[in-house]
Design brief:
Elements lengths: L2 E9 L3 H18 L3 E6 L4 H7 L5 H9 L2 E6 L14 H11 L4 E7 L12 H4 L3 E7 L7 E10 L2 E7 L4 H16 L4 E6 L5 H17 L4 E6 H10 L6 E4 L1 H13 L8 E8 L6 E7 L16 H13 L4 H16 L2 E2 L9 E2 L2 H14 L2
Parallel strand pairs: 1-2, 1-3, 3-12, 5-10, 8-9, 8-10, 13-14
Antiparallel strand pairs: 4-5, 4-11, 6-7, 11-12
Bound molecules: nicotinamide-adenine-dinucleotide.
Amino acid sequence: MANFNLLLLPGDGIGPEVMGQVRRLIDWLNANGDDTFEVQEGLVGGCAYDAHGVSILDETVAAAQVADAVLFGAVGGPKWDDVDYDVRPEAGLLRLRKDLELFANLRPAICFPALADASSLKRELVEGLDILIVRELTGGVYFGEPKTITDIGNGQKRAIDTQVYDTYEIERISRVAFDLARKRRNKVSSSEKRNVMKSGVLWNEVVTQVHRAEYADVELEHVLADNCGMQLVRNPKQFDVIVTDNLFGDMLSDIAAMLTGSLGMLPSASLGAADPKTGKRKSLYEPVHGSAPDIAGQGLANPIAMIGSFAMALRYSLDRVALADRIEAAIAAALAKGLRTADILQDGMTQVSIGEMGDAIIEALGQKD
Ligand code: NAD
């Protein structure tokens, strides 16, 4: 039995609605579970701007630094389109990522059996799919210098982006991937382009060294990034954890996301370095979707990506793997009953509101006791 401190940052648009369902789940766990969750809430994004003129307060960032996990809803919306660049809603999220040094982005692609027909791939390829893409988030070609467009005369311009990785950046992201694989099916596929890129040669070398020195018990394979994209749509179930750089990770995680259907279903996590004393990592868990202003306030949002993000926090930050499994099973049970929010509605299924989906998930969780 443990007491966990969670910081909840619901944000804007549907953020507070989907976070509201996590809050109900936490209340239920506090009343019925073994552990206790102490919850603190804060403002981030447009709502923080409205209240304080900034997208996040220093004290909220400080609370994030000491929380066992941060749960983040979504930020932004047309109301704040014209605010100054450095106080725009997204700046709050970027500041959290930077100050907490969240260099590892985790995007699982899990296909619930009841939704296997909603994928663009055949049912047998995606049914039961459970893979995890670990993307390096703070380095590589998106941040490397020089990054310029130069006029070179004769009506020509030259654009330069720089793909750059240092050993330590590859070491730390590969350790995250190997650690996660040990909690899953113990296999890591490392993806780069060593055949044409020097950064790929170093990536391959460093991942191999970390594996040999610290993680020989985990299965490691190297897959060229183009082949990895192809294999993801040919036979995605061959993978367990895929570790890759910022650019390839951006693309491969979107391909993997599409295997599972709607945006409203996709959770994610961002992790920082492990504390040398406790081994704990700073962490932020959020749905992949945005604030969906088109459906905000109508009870139409799908809460599963947000609830799935909480389950990831339990699995990867709070070491409550069995409880994470139970929550994911409760989501699967609600879907298996034919209940669907509007975004995942199919013929013959019953449309429910966000609150009714939350009810069904909590009810299914109760039945497992
Ligand atoms: P979005 O993800 O908010 O919405 C895209 C579409 O998916 C919309 O039709 C929306 O209704 C639907 N959708 C999204 N989440 C859903 C859910 N849980 N249930 C049901 N349907 C859902 O992306 P957008 O429309 O491009 O952006 C809207 C706002 O969100 C913008 O201000 C954007 O900057 C912001 N945004 C924030 C984040 C974040 O906070 N991390 C991420 C993406 C976009």
